[in-house]
Design brief:
- This protein has 182 residues and is mostly helical.
- The chain has one domain.
- Helix 2 packs antiparallel against helix 3.
- The longest helix has 53 residues.
- It is elongated, with a radius of gyration of 27 Å.
- The N terminus is likely disordered.
Length: 182
Amino acid sequence: MATFVVTTTTGARTGGRPTAGAVDAIHITDLLAKQVSDGLNATHKDVQDQRRREGAQFERSLRDLDVKESKLVDEMFDGGLSRDVAKRQLERIQEERLRLTRQVQAASAALDDRYLKTAADVLELAKSARSLWESRTPAEKRLLFEKLVTNPMLDGVTVRYDLKKPFAILSRMAKGSSWLGN
């Protein structure tokens, strides 16, 4: 993780704006935000499609398992429970298994959606960071700064900090580094 240093004396590297360097570091253009957003959306769609395919394959496998289970139960209960009672109980088990499988798939999709929403929020913050900073009171600026950085330390007249991971990545992207890791 890159460490950013901001000097707090007037006329220093941040133009006399203590801690504003974090805001300047994460600022990205609308074009870069759109490119990242488009990339995230395409990746998100690919992941969702893959999960749907895997989910459908999982359901088919469960159904195959259910058929085998039914045959096994039929063999086990030949002569024990009545066939109708055993089949009804087995159907309930199968329905519950399918319901639980669908719950897992829905939870997985919800996690995907939450991550995409978080990414969109980070991009929006990065796009508007400068204007947000300029329009905030000192207390609000401190809160914004706390959202952007981790491990802030005062070292004499210098504030040292690390940008939080998504903002560190955006900072590298804003400087022209490849965001795809190429």
